[in-house]
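Q: Predict the assembly, please.
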Amino acid sequence: MQRYLSLIEGALSEIFDSLPARPKKLHEAMAYAVNVGGKRIRPIIAMASSEAVGGKKEDALYPACAIELLHNYTLVHDDLPSMDNDTLRRGKPTVWAKYGEPDALLVGDALQALAFATAARAPRNVQGIIAILGEKALGVVEGQVEDIAASGDADYIYTHKTADLFIAAAVMGGLAGGANEPQIESLKTFALNLGLAFQYEDDILDNDGVCDREETLKRIETTTSAALKALETLPGDTSFLKSLAEKLKTRLV
Amino acid sequence: MQRYLSLIEGALSEIFDSLPARPKKLHEAMAYAVNVGGKRIRPIIAMASSEAVGGKKEDALYPACAIELLHNYTLVHDDLPSMDNDTLRRGKPTVWAKYGEPDALLVGDALQALAFATAARAPRNVQGIIAILGEKALGVVEGQVEDIAASGDADYIYTHKTADLFIAAAVMGGLAGGANEPQIESLKTFALNLGLAFQYEDDILDNDGVCDREETLKRIETTTSAALKALETLPGDTSFLKSLAEKLKTRLV
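A: Predicted assembly structure:
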């Protein structure tokens, strides 16, 4: 875990340090948004996915940073007054609460642009990497629109709001590590099911009354098994991705 | 002109038609944002830049659509209540006035994602194309932050708010058409100066009292000459780019 984290934090620092000198306030606010204490689960998935197909974790370093930048832009915009109107995230002021609403809008926009620029620094398969990042960045917004519209279709919303960025992380990592097409399909299946399991677990932890606990535990079992099965076809070191899926299952039962 | 426009409109329609079925409202609002009557100057610059380096205009078709999608996302977000609070653009309701503020935020976010996914469909040099699009998409936001902060540094704001997307259009088009490094530098010089001339002209047409007419006309002359000079080094058909720069100069004098 720590092997991944120190690489990710170092690369994110380098990315922010190499932004232009102006406007300082924007770049400070962007760094604030990205450094308020996330677990970096998506970038870790990206790097471990490169290893799972036989690549090096370093191959996926820029795609890993890209998915974290993109994830954080979605949080900055979700928190805005016209959306969830949240003033705190992880115990700290949200970007709009700290820097104002116009700057928070622009911080999110800038983080999305920086995410794509960063993903393009991958050592290979840049066309495929940008294609999946673009597709899933659009998917997250589609999920958010349906969530606001309260369509009641939880699986659609879970797939797009949560699993889409897990899929983008895994596929970008795999492509950066030199994956072939069947390996990419396995990573997609893994990440979709991991993302769904992750979201079902959140439902239980939130205990928000909407969910049927027994039914949800069964779904966590099914999706986790599907995620683990997908890993079996991969040629590289899948131990980290495996432990990630197993940890989800055992935290609740 | 019409040769470019029919290709661009056809490709934009194809892009919107191939979005997923859901959520219909989001995709309708995205198409509305992009089809409210823009002049398509940036995508035309992209296609003409491919021709200017000896490529085909079709090579730059997806980068051309990408820059138009990106430009329109910036307009959708600029119009929001927390920014310029505009209810009309080109005589029609702005996206937030028509679809509400949350959806307008998400329409902008989705258009930016779609812009990058579209640029990645270029036939060659995708890494360089995404790098310049990412850099200049960030630059536009930087310009907007300084504009809001009223730093008074007009050249910084003009360079980033206007010229950056002209540069991205020209460089993406050149890269898609197979340009080499010196040709890319010439396209950058051309587009920077064209963008500045374009913005100076706007100042005069707006006649907003801030500008010194004589001084501004002199700047239009200088930047237009620099733009035309940069074209002389290019090996392909520069006639359209040349006429574009000359038209700017002659509209005012």
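Residues 158 and 196 of chain B are 6 Å apart (CA to CA). The first strand of chain B starts at residue 88 and ends at 89.
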